[in-house]
Every structure is written in C-alpha cells, then in structure tokens.
Write a structure and sequence with these properties.
- The protein is mainly beta.
- The chain has one domain: Jelly Rolls (Sandwich), CATH 2.60.120.
- 4% of the residues lie in helices and 46% in strands.
- The strands form six sheets. A seven-stranded antiparallel beta sheet has the order 1-22-19-24-17-14-13, with no helix packed on it. Strands 2-3-4-11-6-9-12 form a seven-stranded antiparallel beta sheet, with no helix packed on it. A four-stranded antiparallel beta sheet has the order 5-10-7-8, with no helix packed on it.
- It is globular and about 55 Å long.
- Bound molecules: manganese (II) ion.
Length: 306
C-alpha cells in the first residue's frame, strides 16, 4: 500500500520546433518517468486554429513504443510509413505501434474546426515485444461507461468491465472521464496498478485531492477505488498500469534499452530519405524532422522514479 499523492508539474514545449504549437509535457517529469508503461504525456489546447497553423508535425521516426492520439476538440490527420492516412476526431483513438521502427506525421487538416484540444501519449513496449512489426489501428467504437453523472470512454485496457479493443502489451488502462457539474462517483481501480489523472477541463476532488488543469496528479498504487466529486463540468484523463520494472533509455522519439541502440536508430533516420526500417511517409506537405545531435555523454538506462 503506497497510495501517496504527488503533483507532477508540466513543462511547456514548442511541438516540432520554435514556431510549433505549445504543449505541456507532464511525462516524463522531474520526479517520475512512467506511470505503468505510460512514458510520455503532452496536453495541448484549447488552441484557436483559425489564427495559427495548428498542429504541423512533419515526418519523424519512433521505436520501442506505442503512440496514443486522443482529441477533446478538433481534428488531426495522421499519415505513416505503412501507408496509413487517418483523420481522428474526439472520441476516437489512433494507436500506432512503432515496434522496431516506423515514421509518421500529424497535422491539422485543411478543413478543420476552430478549436483543437487533445493529448498525445506514448506507451513503452516491454522488452519481449519492443521489436514487433510496426502497426497502426484506428478505433472509432470504444466502450463507454455511464454511471450517474460520470461518463468514461475506455481507450486502452479496462474500467469496471468495459474493455477497449486496442492492443496493449502490458497491463494498463487509459480512459477519458467526464463528470457533470457537482456529480459524485466511485470509480473501481486495480490495486496492483499505479494511477495518475490529468485534469483537462473544470476541476474535481480526486481521492480527496483537489485537481485542476496543469499538473499530472500521481495517485500511487494500492487503491481499489477512487472517489470523485466534480466542481463544474469536468474532464480528465485516467492513466494507470502495473509499475514498469524495466529500465529505459528515452531520447528524442526513441524508447530503447541502451545508448548504442539509440545511436543506431538516429543514424538510420539521418541516413535514409526513404527506405530502411523507418520507411517513408507519403503526402505530407513539408520536410521531415531531423534528429537533434546526440549528447556528449553516453545515455544511461533509467528506472521509473528519479
Ligand atoms: Mn510522433
């Protein structure tokens, strides 16, 4: 039993370069690198995309992870080196499994709503599956749990018997929860999982802790339920999973296990305009994103807590 609560403050980051859309990154954080196998969390918006370019992230590679794209408002067009071309809208999941290597782009489509808001998450693949063949899946029909004023859409894993069809490689859960103003609910949890919530809209008491948009609220493990009381109408992401026991090297868009593997992935991306394990993204109107220089020191595998 270690149901400690920590507020993991986010860092503002310009996505895809200096003039890119601002996102707030709460994973990895100063204190923690993972929650379950969730290893990366960017939240963005609401952004007025009639006054900016919106999301414009050119082709870039990934290894050793799954990307989870989820929208609250607006649209994103995904393209990848498998030939996938898939727009997503709120309530739908784009799940890309990088495995041994894939490249993709994400952009605000030409025809779009005025406002964009969402989250981009990564899930680390376990050592046994990190070299699987790359794959892409679009899930437009996810299970929705309704209990009084609470509505939970299950992206990954299971909540109270409602199971997502999305493929997971470790025991984990991801859900979007909305609550009517003033509503109260008790959400069943898996005691062996650690959990965190990221409030996107509104404000709520979560296990007795006041939560509002900004920090990731880390809730620890050992809980069999979570008491929720909404202030105004509220929306949050619930993330959880079995604590990820493997040490990781996370650098740029790669999740690996050692320095040399990251160097090899970086060199393969730098050297291949097309072909190689990262393939080629077709149809994106703009340049690919070059990898930054490697740090001077060797990358060291790190555990889940700093
Ligand atoms: Mn990406």
């Amino acid at each position: 039993m270690s149901a400690q609560v920590e507020l993991l403050e986010g860092t503002p980051v310009a996505l895809g370069g200096l003039r890119g859309m601002e996102v707030v990154r709460t994973l990895p954080s100063k204190q923690r690198r993972t929650v379950g196998a969730w290893c990366f969390l960017d939240a963005y918006g609401p952004h007025d995309v009639n006054r900016s370019a919106g999301m414009q992230v050119g082709p870039h590679p990934h290894t050793g992870l799954q990307t989870v794209s989820w929208l609250v408002q607006g649209e994103i067009l995904h393209r990848d080196s498998l030939g996938s071309r898939q727009e997503i809208r709120p309530g739908q999941l784009n799940l890309m499994t990088a495995g041994r290597g894939i490249s993709h782009s994400e952009e605000t489509p030409a025809v779009h709503s005025a406002v964009l808001q969402g989250v981009q998450l990564w899930v680390a693949l376990p050592g046994s599956d990190r070299d699987v063949a790359p794959a892409f899946a679009h899930h437009a029909d996810l299970p929705v749990l309704i209990d009084g004023g609470l509505t939970a859409t299950v992206l990954m894993g299971e909540v109270a018997g409602a199971a997502s069809p999305a493929r997971c490689y470790t025991p984990l859960v991801g859900a979007e929860v909305t609550m009517a103003a003033g509503s109260v609910a008790l959400l069943p949890l898996e005691p062996s999982f650690e959990y965190a919530i990221l409030m996107l809209d509104g404000a709520a008491s979560v296990g007795g802790v006041p939560a509002s948009p900004g920090p990731l609220v880390y809730l620890g493990d050992g809980r069999s339920s979570l008491s929720l009381t909404a202030g105004p109408e509220s929306r949050f992401m619930l993330l959880g999973g079995e604590p990820f026991g493997e040490k990781l090297v996370m650098w740029w868009n790669f999740v690996g296990r050692d320095h040399d593997e990251i160097v090899a992935a970086r060199e393969e991306w730098a050297g291949t305009a097309a072909g190689g394990r990262f393939g080629e993204v077709r149809g994106y109107d703009g340049p690919s994103i070059p990898a930054p220089p490697m740090p001077i020191t060797r990358l060291v595998p790190r555990g889940r807590v700093r």
